[in-house]
Amino acid sequence: MSLTQSKKKSQKAGLLDLPNELLFSIIDDEVMSWRDHFNIHHASSRLFQLTFKQFYDGRRDIFEFACSHGNLDLMIECLKHRDVPTSQLWEGTGPRRVYITPLDVLSSGFLGGNFSADDYIKVAEWLFVNGYHTQRVVRTRGELRTIPVFPPYVLTMFSTATDTDSHRGICRVTEFLISKGLGFPSKSLRRVSIERRNVHPGYPEFAEGYDSIMEIILQSAFPLYLFEIFLNSMLSDRGLTLKSRLAPGDRVNIDWHEWTGFRELVCILFDDLFAPWTYKADSPIYVSDTFEAKIRLLVKHDGINGNEQSVLENILGSLRRIETKQRDNGRLNFERDGTWCWRELCVSIYLTPFLGRRVWSRHSRVDSPRAIRPVVERPVHEFVIPRTWYP
Fold it and tell me: Minimal CA–CA distance to 332: which of 390, 281, 275?
């Protein structure tokens, strides 16, 4: 027996040899973390029996732990031994007073890689069937309000899928949530998880902070069929398209960005090409083919006008030239090809005289960011060009 094995055996024996009174004083210690209780509870059959009451007493949220690890058996076990009301919520952080639901916890665990897409769907189905909170819950003017959208964590996963199977699993999860009547979220979105981005500190993210719903679904990793579902479902219940014109007062219930900048778009596409954490599928033409198909869908669903289409097609032309360079060189290299590719994308925006709206850049070096508050009728959404830009 090794020294390590001997030490572990003596520690375990020592714990089991303690009198019950001393064991209970340890188990009842409020300072002890719930993970310690969890480990003690599962150390032996004797400790399992001794800690049963404390483990399920509700002070240590084992149900939340089970949700975050996709452990349906433990969730059901929690219900057997204590009441876990279907109204279960956890206090969120931040000024918006968004509460955390069991589905939020499950989605966060999925983002963290704690379990598979199959496990997610199985546990989520159980939450829906048993009446737990699955919509977003916020407190407005002292009252709880539900919003029928799925957790934003799910959208964060598309760009950082590790391989084709992982990407397919994220798509299946999104399809499942949509099939349950949940729509696309528009708040608290993050295009790339901080944890995944920080794994590659040598690459500076070009599109950092560009996290509107349109910016997320325009990235290459967001699949075409879900892009079309978004265009079909986002406004169809109100009889609107992205080009429907609204007076300012009619925008109150449209809870997402009114415009997307071409500057932001080329930053996102550049990251799609070069960021080491970005899902790129198996084909060198993946980015340009996906972008071309999304332009067609925007035209099909009245999502862009002719002038916007011209600029988007110019950007597509630059992607095709980058694709040719990639094919000639075997792959793209940031150090070797980054400057040339960035120039191609930036110049493409100005190849066609833009007759649409110009706005102050959100990150201009000389102009302070300013809110867009039109006092005239405008489309639900439009692509815009910055008044000033320092690419």
Answer: 275
